[in-house]
Amino acid sequence: MTTNVPLLSVKGLSTTFTLGNYSVRAVRDVSFDIARGEVLGLIGESGSGKTVTGLSILRLLPNHADMRADVLMFDGKSLADMSDAQFRDLRGRRLAMIFQDPVGSFNPAKTIGWHIREAIERRAGQLPNSHTEEARNLLTDVGIKLPDRVLNSYPHQLSGGMLQRALIAMVIALRPEFIVADEPTTNLDNIVERQILNLIRTHQKRIGASVLFVTHDLAIAGEICDRIAVMYGGEIIEIGSANDVLKNPLHPYSKALLAASVSLENREDYLYELPGEPGMAAPGQGCCFAPRCSFVTERCRTAPPPIRFAKSNHSARCVLDVE
Ligand SMILES: Nc1ncnc2c1ncn2[C@@H]1O[C@H](COP(=O)(O)OP(=O)(O)O)[C@@H](O)[C@H]1O
Ligand code: SF4
Ligand SMILES: [Mg+2]
Questions:
Q1: Which residues pair with 317 in a beta bridge?
Q2: Rounded CA gap, 100 and 47, in Å?
Q3: Does pTM surpass 0.85?
Q4: Taking a C-beta distance cutoff of 8 angstroms, is the pair 210, 38 a contact?
Q5: How far is it, in rounded angstroms, from Cα 290 to Cα 218?
Q6: By the 8 A CB rule, do 19 and 45 touch?
Q7: Are strands 71-74 and 8-19 parallel, antiparallel or unpaired?
Q8: Mutate to test the pocket of ligand 2, among 238, 251, 285, 295 (most ligand atoms within 8 A of CB)
Q9: Number of neighbouring beta carbons within 10 Å of residue 74
Q10: With the C-alpha atoms ordered 148, 154, 155, 158, is the resulting torsion angle positive or negative?
Q11: Cβ of 233 below 6 Å from ligand 1
Q12: What is the mean pLDDT of each run of 10 residues along the chain (323 residues)?
């Protein structure tokens, strides 16, 4: 169920990493809203700033990152104005992240069962029973055939794929209102992937949760996302409903992405191939996609391209007219 007031509102988000003389503007002036109960997909090539966008919102950046935002509101409250303790409490209950690499989400000295029960208790308070039944059911839901064995295992005893599923079970146990899911099914086979997508959808529908779903897989994006934002060079270069972006892409980069993906028959190779490397334009230098764009003209290089709207909720950053 969606309402007009967004659960999350992000405006003018920029994140820069600086290490000695090395500086990279990983996320640049990114803005989007996510409604309650909505799944917003973030798609784009590796290095386009998808993960850093999620980490920035959840304040999980390393010390050498500088994050700024004009607006960063969750449920009517400014995340930027919260103390670290207030934010940690929120992140442990109402916000959660499914990381691409699950290892860091677990305490190596505790069993998987301890982690999932802890998540259930954080949500529901201490209950008389030990929540084992719910933990077992959650592990079954993520496709684990021997849940008791996994509940009694320590993180290092599980394979990467198994640990990823345990992490997803742990996050769902928390029943958060907002989840950043960062390529959550990348290391899993197709059957398990399907189970995980169904589980995220079920959770999202059950409590009206919102999800920022990061993926490079356009088929998955089309399946799970209500809206899609395309990232390139740290910027959102197109945003709209999943149907509009995937069926009628406006930006030359989105068009190339889509065209390449449908020409690939092997789903394992779904990642598109564009000529050249993803670029990061310097400030004020114009369109970040100019070095790889077949439609580039001089004016693309001199000033940032305007945002053009095909519909009120479908826009792209490009000098070309949108149809
Ligand atoms: N911890 C970090 N320190 C320095 N640079 C980083 C760090 N994390 C990401 N980056 C840089 O930020 C850019 C965006 O990265 P990322 O958001 O991980 O891309 P994506 O998730 O789209 O593959 C890349 O150029 C990457 O090298
Ligand atoms: S602004 Fe110019 S270079 Fe950038 S995508 Fe549009 S046509 Fe291509
Ligand atoms: Mg990433």
A1: 307
A2: 14
A3: yes
A4: yes
A5: 23
A6: no
A7: antiparallel
A8: 295
A9: 22
A10: negative
A11: no
A12: 78 95 92 96 94 96 96 94 92 92 94 94 78 91 93 95 93 94 89 88 89 93 96 96 96 90 52 54 76 91 92 94 68
